[in-house]
Structures are given as structure tokens and as C-alpha cells.
Specification:
Helices cover about 0% and strands about 50% of the residues. It has no helices and eleven strands.
Amino acid sequence: QVQLVESGGGLVQAGGSLRLSCAASGRTFINYAMGWFRQAPGKEREFVTEISWSGGSTYYADSVKGRFTISRENAKNTVYLQMNSLKPEDTAVYYCAARLRTGSYNIWGQGTQVTVSS
């Protein structure tokens, strides 16, 4: 089972960019699809994006399509979230998550705060 550690959050002005990273421990990283979720204050956690184990398939929430890009480097056990054209409504704690190829998300990182000022 992998363990996940996110980094790269911070404060940015609207229109700016940030790149989040999620480093996974363990040798079985390639067995996992990886996703990013976020939770804003007073709201439920929501899906942001997902990438397949090979990186060949990606999926995005409508709210981030065209602005966010997920990628992964299996050799480095790392998944990235490039966030461009950030908006104040993107402010949230962002969580990295992992699931086995045919399972549901059951491994979570501790989260990293992203704050977008207007």
C-alpha cells in the first residue's frame, strides 16, 4: 500500500498558477490510478481530476477543464497538478488520492492548502 504526501500549495492571486505535487511511497505506485480532490470551507470534498496508472487517460471536473492538468511520473512515484488561471473559487484544501485500477479511492494524503485571492 502506498502513502501519499502533497506539497506545493500556497497563496496566489487570481489568474496565477500553482503546481501541486504528490509523492508516493512504495513500489506499487504503478498499480494505482491517482486523483486530486478538494474541499472548500463549509463544503463537501469534490472530485477535481484523475489519471490512469499509465497516464494514458485523464478526467476532469467541468469546473477545472482547460485550466488544470494532471500528470504523473511513475519512475519518480509522483503525480502533479498544474493549476493555471486560478480563481478565488478554487480556494480549498487539495488532497491527493490513490485507488487500485478497479477499486475506489481509499488512500489519501494529508492535504495542502491553496488560497486564491481576488
